[in-house]
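Sequence in, structure out. Go.
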Amino acid sequence: VDNLAFAAYGDPQAEFTWQSEDITGVEGYSVVVDRQMHTIPPREVTATEEAGGYRLEEPGTHWVHVIAHDGNGNWSPAGHMPYHVRARAEADAAPVTEPAAEAP
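Output:
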């Protein structure tokens, strides 16, 4: 199984982590966050850390796409991870609670 994800609705301020291992070392990553399921990031290093934070204002499903660049100059296949942002009205709504039952 590859690219398995369990997801729920999240905050618009999203923090992601990723990891790749290679015997030649990983020099960096190309990361794209968009609304498309199968985007392939460009072959240019945009991140050297294994994490990134993004502000996703628009509600709905966003996708994080990552490829790794190894020490021999090779690029990995793309990994794709969905992230769901809840609509502001849903995020701001107070949870509904039942009133406590009175003792007889």
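Check: Residues 35 and 62 are 5 Å apart (CA to CA). The two ends are 56 Å apart (CA to CA).
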